[in-house]
## 1
Amino acid sequence: MTTEDAAVAGDATDKKGQKNLPLGVVLTPTLFFVAFITIWELVVRIRDIQVLLLPAPSAIWAMFLEDFGLLVELAVNTGIEAGKGVLIGSLIAIGLAGLVHGISWLNQGLLSYSSTIKALPTVALYPIMTVFFGVTSKAVVAMVAVGVAPIMFTFASRGFSGTSEHDELMRSISANWRTRMTALVLPRSLPYVMAGLRTAVPLSIIISIISEYFGGSVSTLGAYIRRESTLLHTVQVWSAIVMACILGVLVFVAVSLLDRYFLRWHSSRREI
Amino acid sequence: MSGESQNFGLRATQLGKRFSSKGGDVQALENVDLEVKQGGFMSIIGPSGCGKSTLLRAFSDLVEPSTGEISVNGKLPSEARAAREFGVVFQSPNLLPWRTVLRNVTLPLQVMGVDRQSRNQTAQEMLDLVGLESFSRHHPWQLSGGMQQRVAIARALSTNPSVLLMDEPFGALDEITRDRLNLELMRIWGNLSATILFITHSITEAVFLSSQIAVMSSRPGRITELIDVNIPYPRNTETRDLPEFYELVIEVRRALLEASALTT
Ligand SMILES: Nc1ncnc2c1ncn2[C@@H]1O[C@H](COP(=O)(O)OP(=O)(O)OP(=O)(O)O)[C@@H](O)[C@H]1O
Ligand SMILES: [Mg+2]
């Protein structure tokens, strides 16, 4: 079993855990979170720590509410950049995996490359992106695509390489290449693509924000954080971080919902 | 092709198949002669690993014979496959889990380029035929094993093939379900007059269904005996109580024992 296989099946175990222990799974983290925030608030107040250094949670929350409209706008822009990057990176990766599947040596070569790229800190390539695209939104999108593509390639290639008794069925009914792809190969690799997206989508938010931080489109979370931190507006920076966390959670939930919808036929997703 | 072979739904002459692998060669089939007239029902019975599936897969153009000749409706298996003259029912239902029951049955028609409306209509008729008309919107996993196998039969029938190749289609089912599906298969076959090659491990099933039974021995896979089943069609539940039925069961069991004794 490869890591990709584990990732496809892994979700099932998670879900079972949730079904059996709904209370523990929800309650324990909530308690920890409340305790953490309380201690933070107390420490800041009792030790009288400067706002510049570490603002109290209550101050951050107040600022978050005050700037809510602006923060939502920033998050939407960041989300759109990340989404475009995921879309472009995934389409290229899946298309490439589809083309080279069956050409074993090429597939192997590309797989080693994508493993290597995955291990590299790709965000470091951002300055190069700005050489190609300027300090624009495009550079951020390109950076996300570069970060996402190797992950998606590994998973898609693993999915395409699968064989099953259905291959004989397809041959026995003399299916042409197109039907074989749409009726068998693509749906069969979908669990792998979804597993890839569960890793790639949260990562895309991180890459976007960091790229934006180093310069990119103006009205985004990363750019806002950089601007406010140079002005020493620590509370604003923290409220943007809160928004970034919320954005991360939202996209994760969105991917999980997509997963459940598209893979409702998959053995690990069935609710019986 | 000679005019004579046109009369045979399935024909193998001196068919041999040798699998070569690192672990050594396996002579899966040797000197197999088999003739099934158009509209005939031939069962194949034999010990596990004797080459039954290999024989069926040779007819379905999934395995290339090493020696000998083989024809489906007087054509090469590859030609017959391209002309969609046969349907295959595999040992497992082999349904696509992401497709509904209806869309599983329409798959071969989709491949043929039949438009959506008429392929849905044909598929619905096939589901009527196997008694699953109200399950078209279900997914395969929502069906029992027997129902899934009936969907697989409906799928194989959807292109109206003149030859049906069935590899232990009811092998995984309990005896009662199997008996019921045997009756259903008889009813369907009565309406279709297709040529059927049917692999089974069950002696009673073979006797109940077939017009002729081929008994095979293994290593090398050979046909050791051909037994005619002279019980008139249509067959029904009473058929199983006939004295001829018992005699044939005993005869097939003896032939099977002898074939197994040949196995080293
Ligand atoms: N693709 C293959 N490569 C190598 N050997 C094979 C292959 N397919 C079948 N064989 C060998 O050929 C022999 C016959 O196999 P086959 O599947 O036809 O048996 P069978 O009669 O259908 O058995 P069962 O009743 O268990 O299904 C076996 O010894 C098997 O190991
Ligand atoms: Mg077999």
## 2
Amino acid sequence: MNSDQETFNINESPELTSRVLTDASASGPVIAFFTSAVFWLLIGTVFGLIASIKFNFPDWLGSIPALTFGRVRPAHLNAVIYGWASMAIAGCYVWLTARLCRTEVGWPRLLYISVLLWNMGVLYGIISILGGHTQGMEWLEFPRIAVYLITPAAVSLSLSILRTFHARQVKHIYVSLWYVLASVVWFPILYLIANLPFYSGVTQAAANWWYAHNLLTVWVTPAGLAAAYYFIPKVIGRPIHSYYLSLLGFWTFALFYNWNGIHHLVGGPLPTWLISTSIVASVLMFIPVITVAINHHLTMIGHFKKLKYSPTLRFVVFGAMCYTAVSFQGSIEALRSFSEVSHFTHYTIGHAHLGLYAFFTMILFGAIYYIMPRLVKWEWPYPVLIKFHFWFVALGIALYVVSLTIGGILQGFYMNDASQPFIESVNITKPYLLARSIAGVLILIGHLFFIYIFTLMVTRKGAIRLTPPWREEPEAATR
Amino acid sequence: MATLMPLPLAGLILILVALLGGAMAMFAFLWAVRSKQFKDLSSGAYAIFDEEEPVGKMTDNTFGFPESEESTEKRD
Amino acid sequence: MMYIRASIFFLGVLATLFLGWAGLTMIPGLQIREIKPASALKPYKDQQLRGRAIYIREGCIYCHSQQTRPEGFGADQKRGWGRPSVPGDYVYDKPHLLGTMRTGPDLFNIAARQPSEDWHLIHLYDPRATSPGSIMPPYPWLFKEDEVFSKEVYAAKGERVVPVPEEFAPEGKVIIATHEALDLVAYLVSLNHTYSIEQKVNNNE
């Protein structure tokens, strides 16, 4: 309260000043997190593309052990999850928390340690996977040492954010902040429990998928929703439509989403009640999802024209719409009759990318476009490249999801038709897998645009424009 | 196979802690809802706005500015 | 008031997580523990375990599942991929290799379907040599090349010649399986869970 008083005295507009201070305190660690994230995004995209092309040309790079499909694929997944997604989330959380608490970032040194450990962990993990050292479970491939590096990194991040929260200068805890706080409490615990060594056999499979799905529950999805709940109202300048709906959405989300994971093992050798519980929870996810969808839509209504002016809004609204889509898809997919076809096929991969890319990554792009200028005090050079970025990745991911959805369902039908030799279920997917690789190329090109302007931004290079968003005058708006 | 561990004591303790902590927290939460702990949260929707960036003001115009009135139009 | 609310919030957050964890992993863990391994199920031998490690290292799991589904759920039964798997089949598996993808066929009972070691060796060296149109990657680093000698020479050297069809083998060379290839194949030809199970275990349907 004291510092608030002081800034009030020295400046006529305390909010602006405190916001500037808040942003300034976040700038070092957040830029470090984002830069690392963008680096891993590039690495992850390249691995993903290699893995995809290997489906089209299985003998391509076929004699290099480190680049065999079974190693490149987990390298891709882990690079984008623990490298790109996690560090983008970290940066976003640090900035959001400081802003929403209207205070400076707590314990910033911990954050630098966190960036360092996180990068070391991911680097070690990826190299290990390429070298053939893996724990062998999807989403938990990283060997122990990487886990020991990433866990303290995650804990430091959480401590810093809780410290910021503790020093908050606001009464109301904005809905985004709930997601952030829940997330930073959940994630380190989840990560640690999942890596405990006392599972085996089918219990381990249950733990594996409980973890893999909960990583979305406690880490990826809250980040996407926190950002959407902040940036949509903030960019268009209109409060979220219903605050109560967002509260309901949060708790139902937390309650049901935790139980979803085992639908990945539907039809498998696990107790029926367990899989059924998961299916029920997956279907119940309709509730939180609908509340979020309605809320965001009602907030946006009458403001869709603003998509034209704001890259952040474009990316975030695209992502929010895909959140609704992917959640509905997920709920339906969990049903037995549907998963009988879709399970074990490329359909699931399409679904995963609809969630992790079309929803999460797009929203995080939007967040980065908003946050970076305010930290670096530099405007985005060449806005046209942002448009290129948007259209390349938007079309790329659309092609990606559509081709794998169709290909996957056909694959499922052929696989479930015993009169067809198995190889037919492989042959039928080939054109769709080729389309997927093309989609991958589009996405990579989009990322190269993004990485180029991001680099210019960090180094404060490129064209200087006239109206930096952070010191835009009211008159300029009506120019 | 030596690596096949029986579910160790730690697991049992954890499950007890989980159930206990879970039950306690659920009751606490229900109590909180009933005693209207979350009542005044609705004003929280305005927490992200302030005098410098009030309701009605667009805060990202990287692609240019909207034509005149629209951006300053006030909404409830 | 604020502190109470904040601590309640955190408690709630922890509770939902722990509830999920307890429900989805600990309780089934306890339930499944009751299940004894089927008497016909043998623990892995050393060589099979080494092969299993290579299966993990090369990421076969990203294309192959190891779980067979019951009648009425997919075509596993009609394809003759073996009876539905049960928790008791997996007691020696660590890490588990259930998998979630079937770019290639399920391998839980591959040994019953394809017991030939030579077939597996050729297939691993170049999947298209046995299965035209396959998109499975080749694993040439599990093999080495040698000059063409008479059979006795290889026997003396202790080398296992892989009968790769001519058009897939390098010209004037013979393909020799390394220990790793032999271990992996030993694991594959041990994957047979078609023995009948005595107790009725709680499974799907």
## 3
Amino acid sequence: MRYVWAAALKDIRRRLRDPLALLIWLGIPFVILALLSLVFRGGEISPQARLLVVDQDDSMVSGLLVGVFAQGDMAQLVQAEEVSEEEGRRRIDEGDGSALLIIPEQFGNAVLTSQPTRLTLLTNPSQSILPSILEEILSLLVDAVFYLQRLAGEPLAAFASGPPEGAAGFSDPFIAATSIEINQLMTSLTEYLNPPRLDVSIEIEESEEHKSLNLGALFFQSMFFLAILFAAQGMSDDVWVEHRLGTLRRALTLPPGVGGFLAGKLLAGFLLMLAMAVAGISAGAAIYGFPAANVAPSALWAATSGMALLVLFLLLQLFATSQRAGSILSTLVLFPMMMLGGTFFPFEAMPGWMAAIGRRMPNGWALERLKELLSGSATAETMLPATAALLATLVVGTWLAARRLRGGFVGR
Amino acid sequence: MIEVEELRKEYGDLVAVDGVSFTAQGGAVFGLLGPNGAGKTTTIGCISGLRQPTAGRVRVMGHDVVFEGPASRARLGVVPQDLALYEELSATENLLYWASAYGLRGAALKKRITESLEVTGLLDRAREPVKRFSGGMKRRLNFACGIVHEPQVLLLDEPTVGVDPQSRVRLQELVKAQAAAGTCVLYTTHYMEEAETLCDRLAIVDHGKLIAQGSLNELRAMLGERDLLRLSGRFPSEAQIAAALAGVEGAEIVQAEEGSLIVAAPQASRELPALLAALTRVGAEVWETTMTRPSLETLFIKLTGKELRE
Ligand SMILES: Nc1ncnc2c1ncn2[C@@H]1O[C@H](COP(=O)(O)OP(=O)(O)O)[C@@H](O)[C@H]1O
Ligand SMILES: [Mg+2]
């Protein structure tokens, strides 16, 4: 163990003596992030949520509900489009649209008569920010409907159920009484309609801010993990460097052998990436408001998955025939991983099918878990198997690397 | 102590080491002498655990290198043929890393690092990055990395190749000091003179095969105290030469090639006129004659029929 520490320390020292590579790994993502935030601060490329609406009710109430999305600031953020249920479901499945809102038949009636009713919102799984904004807006509207029901329930219900049996119409006293009641109601309603809870424009402003925060956070996560990916690929060719230096051959004659050598390399990679992660994620938490308590587990996850990526790149290097071949091979693998795996374009900005592929790439998979940890939505149920899978990858990958290193690689 | 029994190592079709056996004892320098490609580095690799022997047994201080790898490696110090140093790190940092693998720590580690730097004459440059060192200094540091943990067995693979004469002498003294302190030293070289001045016992290898071994005196005795005559000129067939030389006592053809002839003979200086006369009689024309006293070189030529050159 002492040797593994010494081996890691020596690698870290070597890295720090020649910090250019480190600066590039961190620098490129940082520059991209800075450029992106400049672009988005201009607000010109603000993404629009596309809400597909199925209005099976087609009443005045449902019309009002849909209308909310087409008003003022809201219209800039949400583009509502009426579709049939069949079309809506198909398009959401294909990843076209941020969410599908289904307003059931008799919705308006149920609202007016205080009957329980249900709105259905299907969100697009490949987008995470926009659908959640829609969800928020909708829950806001449902709250509004709730208040409306509570306050105007009785007189509205009386109108809704029609004139008493046998009568040709409503009696004058009834209308008078109801009018007074409604008048009073309207007076009191303004109190509820105007306060913030229903003031759509105020709420939307808040949402807009919320959105830009989330967008920044989104790109930050992608760019941070890009730095980890670069570091993993960049460190992997150190086996070739040590091969050329002759130090690899000598290391294999040491008592700890190939296992000690690899363990030292991986520990050095882990520690460097942990330092990157602690610094990067702390800064990210300060800027984008991730809870401070999530920094440590997120950094640990980022460094551990970075170490697993290092093992994967190491295997590519070890099976290459030369340092040049190794660098070409690992770059050929790096690019699609980088582009599709959410570490360049966030999944949320990708077509659904592409995001679905990206989430299955090693870096995309690890990035998704990192986002969960950062936002605090990670649960033991998802993280325990994920950690087990990560550790299994590390163990199997290291074993393969040791075999290859001891066998064909050093024989050259 | 190193015990090598019937060691064989194949690289695909190529047999790099072919049934080599020898034993190297503590407190002495055991030399492995042979030309490039003879299999010296491969033999060292099998002892150090870097290479898996194809067949045969190797034990280091009684520990089998295959079945007790870590235990046998723990007793070894290795100075590889090619440098094995981290250029960006200082001499001290290099030593720190290699020594840590043998469990050295704390004050003992510091003391040994200082001692190793001192004996190799690098103490005043200890904190400088190795990339600023001269070739000779790197060689000495490479040596220091192999002895920093005071190994019982030291493997040195051509440590003086490409080294300036001053550093070479210094390295040879260091090797002798190691043996004098009780270490078992295995030293490979293709320099005859180095083997003669440094080694207590020698094994001569060629094409992966061990062709002779023993102390220097034992090996010299194998030559039968015969001198070696190198002649250049125009010669008839080997059979005619052999017939002509039959009259000269003890003379024997070592090598006969177009334009050159090597003959071994006891007291060649006295027999030279008779020998030349015999050759002239069968139509040979001799232009140049050189005579060599018995040495490892002559032994090597006698055993392999060729000269030992780089
Ligand atoms: N890794 C290897 N793969 C294939 N052949 C090798 C390898 N290493 C050495 N050889 C061959 O094995 C023979 C012995 O090489 P080596 O042990 O390096 O000799 P020496 O050290 O005496 O010069 C040579 O013919 C060499 O070409
Ligand atoms: Mg060699």
